[in-house]
Specification:
The chain is mostly helical. The protein has five helices and no strands.
């Protein structure tokens, strides 16, 4: 794996985790009482992943991407139903970025990325009540450039 490719994918995952932490702050403010524990657990999981990714970027000699002061939400979040939709969207987006990280890394980093992808996919299913066969890949198919043909 190329160090540059790995670092770029780690930075993208870190940026996605920053956005997820912000988004779960919004979710927590609107979610109904019965799902607050679930929202708090997801918030804590994303904070832990963010901190781990910060260390990984530094270990590769990079400067971790900073969190933005704020993030644009994909839709208004004014009630619990919208908070659930946002949580689902956050997890789907994070899963997509981790699928990129799985492709860009090997060894322990790949295992970490695959674990994070799995956790995000499970949380997305819990929030939405629906699942997809390959979480994170459908979203990438529409935006990813074609892969070069393998060379011998």
């Amino acid at each position: 794996m190329s160090r540059e490719k790995e670092l770029k994918a780690l930075q993208a995952a870190l940026a996605a985790e920053h956005a997820a932490v912000y988004g779960y702050g919004v979710v927590g403010g609107q979610i109904r009482a019965g799902r607050r524990t679930e929202a708090q657990a997801a918030y804590d999981a994303h904070r832990a992943r963010r901190d781990a990714l910060t260390r990984e970027v530094r270990d590769l000699g990079g400067t971790p991407v900073a969190a933005a002061a704020g993030y644009a939400l994909p839709f208004p979040v004014s009630d619990s139903a919208a908070a659930v939709r946002l949580a689902t969207e956050l997890e789907d987006r994070v899963a997509g970025v981790y699928s990129d990280l799985v492709r860009a890394t090997g060894g322990e980093r790949r295992r970490m990325a695959a674990g994070a992808l799995r956790e995000a996919a499970v949380r997305a299913v819990r929030w939405s009540g629906e699942s997809v066969a390959f979480p994170g890949l459908a979203e990438r198919a529409a935006t990813a450039p074609a892969s070069p043909a393998p060379t011998a």
